Amino acid sequence: MTMPPVKYQRGDMVMGRWPGSSLYYEVKVLAFDSKSQLYTVIYKDGTELELKEQDIKSTAGFQPRSRSRSRSPGRRRSRSRSPARTTRRSSSRTAAAVAAAAITDSAVSSRRDTRLKDVEVMLSPVVSFIMFCHRTDDARKTTEAEPEKNQGRYNLRRRKDDGDAKPAETRPEQLEEKEAKRVGALASTLSTPLDFGGKIGAYFWLLFLPAWVFFLVLQVNREDPSLTNFPPPLPPLEAFWDAQALGFVILWILFQALLYVTPVGKLSEGMPLRSGERLKYRTNGFFAIVVSAITVAAAVHQGVDLTYIHSHFLQLATASLLISILLSVYLYIRSRYAAPEQLALGGNSGNVVYDFFKGHELNPRIKNFDLKFFCEMRPGLIGWCLINFAMALAEMKQHGLDAPSNSMILVNLFQLLYVVDGLWNEEAILTTMDLMHDGFGFMLAFGDLVWVPFTYTMQAYYLVSHPNPLIVGFYIFRKSNSEKNAFRRNPADPRLSHLKTIPTATGKSLLVSGWWGVVRHPNYLGDLLMALAWSLPCGFSHLLPWYYMIYFIILLVHRDSRDMSDCRRKYGSAWDEYCRTVRYRIIPRVY
Ligand SMILES: NC(=O)C1=CN([C@@H]2O[C@H](COP(=O)(O)OP(=O)(O)OC[C@H]3O[C@@H](n4cnc5c(N)ncnc54)[C@H](OP(=O)(O)O)[C@@H]3O)[C@@H](O)[C@H]2O)C=CC1
Ligand SMILES: CC(C)=CCC[C@@H](C)[C@H]1CC=C2C3=C(CC[C@@]21C)[C@@]1(C)CC[C@H](O)C(C)(C)[C@@H]1CC3
After folding, report:
1. Strand pairing partners for 295?
2. What is the ipTM score, two decimals?
3. What is the pTM of this model?
4. Which residue from 210, 304, 370, 573 has the fewest beta carbons nearer than 10 Å?
5. Which residues contact 82 (CB under 8 A, 6 or more apart)?
6. Ligand 1 pocket, 485 CB below 6 A?
7. Is the CB of 376 under 6 A from ligand 1?
């Protein structure tokens, strides 16, 4: 019997499909086993795999398409780059991977298809090829249908010399900076699947979220503030509005902005953007809360009556809502003019309401003033503590106490600890979903400026008129967030060398032991335990103080499922392997 000729030879550089995904990366053929008909290939991050011939493409397979259009010497040069030359810029490599992931998960419309064609010619072979795969609908369907089937077929193993301590942060493909920018531009033209119930969902949330805040605020003032009660009668519209309250909110935001721009504290680098650039952030949050506390203490000492916050809670919430709407309109308009590589992958559905809600620009900045980072970490978060403190004063005033009740002190302390910890470890926010992946739109602006300060303070508010194991949660929350942050910043960190990792085709590795080996979101587990601690001091006579706990379970379960599908798209079968190893999502042995 004659054997078919071996198509690829040892040493050939070809494109190998990453199992379980539709991404192709440059690989080198190491061997061919005629018995199993499998090629052993090696990716640039050192991962060896056995691939079937159908999962390998020659680089030439897609070049003619680009070549016919790309005539400039510059472009030709970038295609003929030798592997040695490609190792120049590590940051741009991230760009390619992100773009690749974006391309993978997109439902590429025919309108976009045309745009793709135009951009494709400018890209490196790797990206061009990925795009080529995505343009062929049938091929896409096949590759997307296959992952489950593939799972057992590939033999994923690490190179023997690739110890755990060794960082796997090298990319299989690398782009020059210019190319990376174009890749960024391309990625931004593609839309990720719509979250939050899509376009209809966006309408719903836009109306529901502010309504819910007002419902809570009106409900908590009642004698029997049960969440299951009928909504309280709506007060007259003018009861919502107070110009002075708006003035105070503006003053507070300006004060926080002043502290943010004060050149005190560290300048931290964010994660590489698609363009390869790393933005700098002034992480002086701890300084900001200390100065805020001193200023507030001085004001109280001077006779300023902070219980105004309790008595004008509704008007302050309305003022903050107004500001968050104006800010979101501004963000939406500027996102329409932003350079493509500055845009997040979501928020470009073409539907004004959805895009307004979700947000499209990733890091809107006015000069060096980062609006998203500022809003997420300052006025609302520090405002949360200010409001809690004001509630303690209101409780004392209302009940003629010399000191706040024990429950009030506990709630204040627990939540203060949470916020101070967030600000002390402010740098860690740079590796969270919000900062890395989500655009800045109404959802976050409203979340930061209204939702956090006016709903997270419900327990303290409740305790004003309803006098009435858990440090472990904080410990888990902080340790797990810091572990991942340290690992993402420096995978070779000697303090993390004992941790096991799974390499992925994107070059990033996944932690599979330590906190991230206990459950897939240990940070959510810690956060939930903390939420429990905040509600327990309020007792069980009403549902309202448990509102945060209930909301938080919904929020984190939803975030977890969003993150699972994002990571599944990004990391393909490496993610499946992680999920097989770490079986539970948030609560060990339960969920
Ligand atoms: N109080 C509140 O209202 C809220 C609090 N939070 C808290 O904020 C914190 C951050 O949460 P959030 O941004 O949602 O999510 P994460 O900090 O968990 O970020 C998710 C990202 O981390 C990376 N990642 C996931 N698994 C691994 C792994 N095994 N090894 C290495 N990297 C991994 C992936 O990004 P990549 O691989 O691209 O780096 C993933 O997209 C949490 O503690 C959460 O509880 C969050 C929301 C609301
Ligand atoms: C329903 C709705 C409008 C949701 C918006 C969600 C936002 C309220 C939250 C999204 C992620 C957040 C984070 C924090 C606060 C709440 C929001 C903005 C956070 C700043 C709290 C302090 C923590 O230490 C943290 C820095 C880890 C955390 C980051 C995520």
Report:
1. none
2. 0.90
3. 0.66
4. 304
5. none
6. no
7. no
